[in-house]
Prior knowledge:
This protein is an alpha+beta fold. 45% of the residues lie in helices and 28% in strands. It folds into two domains: 2-54, no CATH class; 78-149, no CATH class. The chain has a six-stranded mixed sheet with strand order 5-4-3-1-2-6, covered by helices on one side. β1 (2-7) and β2 (14-18) form a beta hairpin.
Amino acid sequence: MHYANISGCDTGEGFIVGSDWGNLKFNIVGDVAVLDGDIGPATIWVERIGARFLTPEEITAFETAQYRVLAKVEREKQVSAIKVTISTGKTFDGDEQSQTRMARAIIGLQAAGIPSLIWILADNTVSEVTIAELTEAMILSGQAQAAIWVI
Length: 151
């Protein structure tokens, strides 16, 4: 299904839905519609493109779905930009992939009994980091993500 915004309505704004048309802009004044420069009765244009007017409930559902999609895109941008600074002053990337890498490194270091490893920090400097530093960075990253996550 495709949706088109109807603006300039005497009776209010709304949407139109249809399946066999592209991105059409309607301007409706009373019962007259202007579509791509042609003028005609609104009901004829709606029938010609095989569409129908949406109910207020459908409009609300559509707008809610649009909002959620845009909010999710914005949330993904924010999560991918997470950077955290730990108590020792080192700054880590905190996006989801970095959190996964930190978790794997922590598990591996603990299993092997190794206290530290070389890590690339958020500013691309090479640094030796400890299990405690990685753990702190992962926790801070997760908290930052949780603060962003709820829509």
